[in-house]
User: Fold these one by one.
Assistant:
Number 1:
Amino acid sequence: MAKVLFINPGPSGHLNPAVAVSKTLVERGEDVVFYANAHYKEKLSGTGVELRIIPSEPIVEAFTTYGMNHLFNVINGLLKTTDIILPQILEDVQHEHYDYLIHDSMFGCGHLVSQKLNIPTISTVTSFNQTTQMFDDFTKNLATTLTQDEVDNANAAFDELKQHVEYTYNVDVPSRFEVMNNPGDLNLSYVMEKFQIDYASFDSERNYFAGPSVIQPQPSGFMDEIDRSRPIIYISLGTIFNQNIAFFNKCFKALKDLNVTVVVSIGNENRLEDFEDIPDNFIIKAYVPQTELLQYTSLFLTHAGMNSTNESMMMGVPMLAFPQSADQPVVAQQIEDLNLGQQLNAETMTPEILKQTVLDMLGNLEYYQHNIDQIRDTETNQRPGYELAVDRILAFRDQNCK
């Protein structure tokens, strides 16, 4: 048995794949200390990990300091969270021994923690993996889309943050790539090989594509109230972008006259009185057991978060993507390029365009499902992604932890 330090503050799209992995690690004998946001205490209960809480509000406040309007500001926000996360973890573990570290590739200052602890490190990747060259090409292109003032301000903020973090914690922040991607000795991706952009560019010794880490859904009673006699359409913008009232109202107008059952997840912040008239064929819920519902879903209207995209492909459900931010435009483009679905702009589409697109997709479900099957069929092992991930983690442990 080895002792594992696992850092993953969330959000849910980053945390969800780690739940099954951490549970399986414990079942196979590992002693896991897991740092997470208090919101995910219930998700991690029953996994057998020792849960330690990282405060979410200060992290969110730091992360959003520079705004979310472009990636350079997002990266600056990530670097600013160092002052919240790193001191707590270093103080907590100063008298503890760990054999290896697992951290989320985007959240949790993994690259910095690994420098301080000097132990073998695994970075878990919930979106597309990136080589340094891929990242550099993307950021160079991004810079051409911004004003010179935006670039200068972002660069100045990054340089100031980099100097502060390096001086305060005696660590190295080589570039934006390390802040955004937190590469480890092993980079473990929850993306299917054939869905990964430019898969052949990745060194198989340091990069492993386990595929979706999702526990098989169990019946909860949710489907008992859903009319399954007609096609089911599921609509969700995830947990961060679901306050787009105008988008949901367009969906009401577009789909109200179709012979379908529409299930909509609106989150805990929205109220029913915030919406226009809700049609009779719509079921509105604050929370939806997504993987359970997707087993019965014909078409998924999604924000194209990687977690939702993985789950949809696992269940063979075509997607109509409405990317909102972060990596979602890239994921949505891959969905379209591989003919797993289509994408629309949530802001500019009309109810009429949405209605016609949905009708066209419902009439061609077998085409999209066949293409999804082609992606899934590239997985040579039919075991779940979290089991494959743990196999690789333990092999890494045996090779690197003496």
Number 2:
Amino acid sequence: MPAEAPRGAESAAARDPGYRAPWAVRPEASRGRLHPEPADARSPFGRDRDRIIHSRAFRQLQYKTQVFVFHEGDSFRTRLTHTIEVAQIARSLARRLSLDEDLAEALALAHDLGHPPFGHAGEEALDSQMRPYGGFDHNAQSLKAVTSLEQRYAAFDGLNLTWETLEGIAKHNGPLRRPAPAILAYNALHDLELTTHASAEAQVAAIADDIAYNNHDLDDGIRAGLFTLEEAAALPLVAEAHAEVRAAYPDLESRRAAPETVRRVINAMIEDVVAETGRRTRALAPTSADHVRAARDPVVAFSRPMTEANLAVRDFLFHRMYRHWRVNRAAQKSKRVSQLLFQLLHGGPQMLPTRWAERAGGAGSPECAQAVCDYIAGMTDRYALEEHRRLTDPNVPG
């Protein structure tokens, strides 16, 4: 895909590495934390990033599914490896666009903290069980994790992140027209301005997730044998990158040509975002981060041709990977595990560990449903499978 070289901010950044675009979030102008804390040597957003990395929820991403359940193999991506890849792309984009790199990285690292075990299958299972109580949304659960469920600090629940980081976690995909109950509950304490766009840094984290997700699923799908590189290369975006690889390395075997092709697709998408963001910011001429928030449309985006090409990749993955019979089998088994865990614990909260039982109240109550949901959402794949065995197999000690 051709990419127009952006002018303005990037050229200024090339002349001065310390340059920040006028619409970048300024750490010195942060709106602060719900619980005031003295500053330290780090920027407030760098401090947020460090707190996210040291959180329990972040560690648990290591054993949470991306697409394949953990026993499928050690080389497939997990939520943790996906998150690290998103953070790398987000930081690179933020640097190219002269935005705050620490904030973009913090948001990328936090974007999947609320995902339950078993990927989208686990999320669908929890959503179905929680429908009478407002449903389940992993973005809302991410906000809940960093504002209340993490209990590492003596002075407050959660991680006490800055307003800018919390705003980006809540609405990095755009203004919230119908916020989830957990987001509304927190917003009543700490107004995140849910009807506006998030900062450009949050938009960078969101689009970095799109770039990483599709491309790395292409890589994992080829490696798992769900489809071939040649089949993926029929897609317009992949075709161009694959042709470049074959022209440069005509005798390269597929196992090396696939990651080389995916790498070039990622690069083409990054260049497209930089160019399109340059076009949009020149048209809008934002003078501040709040100007970006108030804009009608996002400023960080793919061009129309890239959006269409990306949708074609997503459609291919949906039919050839996410609905492959092997993935379907794992998803159905995972859903049943998650649903049964919820039903057993919702009906018998006395079986919950003490911390969660204290929150649960009576069996079958809304409070019990929320405590059980939070407990299951924090599980890894293998912990959920072990808990299922403990609750259903009389031969397994409780």
